[in-house]
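Hi R.,

As promised, here are both runs. First protein below:
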Amino acid sequence: MINNKEKYTAFIKAEAKRLGFISCGISKAGFLEEEAPRLEAWLKAKHNGQMQYMENHFDKRLDPTLLVDDAKSVISLLLNYYPEQTQTDNTFKISKYAYGQDYHFVIKEKLKELLHSIQAEIGEVGGRAFVDSAPVLDKAWAAKSGLGWIGKNSNLLSKQVGSFFFIAELIVDLELEYDHAVTDHCGKCTACIDACPTQAIIQPYVVDGSKCISYFTIELKDNLPMEMKGKFDEWAFGCDICQDVCPWNRFSKPHNEPLFNPHPDLLSLTKKDWEEITEDTFRAVFKNSAVKRTKFEGLKRNIDFLKL
């Protein structure tokens, strides 16, 4: 006889698939013991640079029961964003995740629908949706739920789909069947470490966030440091180098989420177009994009730095 936990788990995974998520894994909510000393050491070493928010809510980051009353399960979900076409060669580049509409809004809607479906099917279930904007260690939870392993570039990697996906969570007060972690398949490969132009991967599995091109082009609000001149490899917003060189990304397949399709003009922008970009063009091309995070002035700053 199928018990309720099994029935509910199967329903949630089927719903996640219907909503377009490529994977769904579930873990028992509780304190992340292994991550606690790692996070503490990472913050102590100031690898978060100016990302002050990483120091806030230390306890909540490690314990979802402090975020959701009576939390029992963490439902981790992956949504593919790998594009069918990428930017032309010899242009200034933006991370593939920012080609389409801002993922926060796209995924939040899907998570809301998933929670409503759970409540309609099962009854009163309390929960909260999280998309990388709250103190949740999403990669740790996804790994714990068997959706992949954390690679040497500190991204979640999957044998089936690589790493070009977003991670999101629903934390609920419902007991479910739990998945198990998978083994690490990085082996002796150091492709990501060798390829990073700013040497941000200071040792396998440890990234100094304050040296990462994504940090410089998105998070850093000051002037870009001159010692980094010539090291950005034409990245104007974010950076995909450590993912592009990862052998597991040979298995990336194009997403089927229309909202992640790029603005028609984006892929054909030349270096000259980027250099001459106006605020109006910026608003039109990146209307609902994550690129808006850096604002027009920030993007101009990055492009000017690349021209130096």
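And here is the second one, sequence first, then its structure tokens:
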Amino acid sequence: MLNSNAGKHAQLIKSKAERFGFQSCGISKADFLEEDAPNLENWLKNNFHGEMKYMENHFDKRLDPRLLVEGSKSVISLSYNYFPEEKISALENYKISKYAYAEDYHEVVKEILREMVSELQEEIGEFGFRVFVDSAPVMERSWARKSGIGWVGKNANLITKQNGSFYFLAEIICDLELTPDHATTDHCGTCRKCIDACPTDAIVSDKIIDGSRCISYATIELKNEIPDHFKGRMEDWMFGCDICQDVCPWNRFSAPNRQAKFAPNESLKSFKKEEWKEITQEIFSEIFRKSPVKRTKFAGLKRNIEFLERSSDSGL
């Protein structure tokens, strides 16, 4: 039996989320993710996480937010649009994932979340919480799916009818008792565009990704040399990859974001392949000071560019 304020507080949170610029907001009861447990276990057993050994840590916490945030009763899932107003030209250029065009989303969205929670506490009263933006062992897509924000597509991205999939996910795990929402239905049908378009065959089956074959993994997560099976298949991606999202029919509904901090970095618009090949640590630090690209570090980006260059030179 929910308390008398559960529905009122849930509506307040959703209206506040909209005012703070979030596309969607849904609520789930903080509980054990029973149906996700065997899927996560099998994914790890198949070594689909490659060298992302951190995915093996905190197995129980990934599946139960009450172990992550003591006393938690609700998971508030939110989405924040990052689809750019203009696409950086790929003409004589290496490609970078759209989410990395601008400032680091971890900091931008987390700051917005903190301001939003501060206002909520002024109106509701003090409550225990933690905010997450692609951080800590949180099964973001699982919670977003449970809360009705969207469904998990065949490319394992969360998709919504209204907005496609070019958005960040974030969570507020809190000790407020809130009226939960319900999951939506799957609308991928028989479409295979993302599966067929993936040049490295990383989508091994519906909703299951072999991360170790993904271009994003190879250019961001992988710390060692890029394996030979990526040769001739990278399609000039030097950081991340948007192929499976770009071909998704639902992304025809993507509209440009209105967050000034997500405006494309001017430096990225003017760079060409020859300039990327000559990039120095100093220029890297200057361009990517506030960017998610700093995660791969200068050495990682140089490795990616050199791998693409070698693949091109060999005629692959």
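A quick note on the second one: The beta strands are 24-29, 74-81, 95-96, 129-132, 151-152, 158-159, 167-174, 203-205, 208-209, 237-239. Let me know what you think.

Best,
J.
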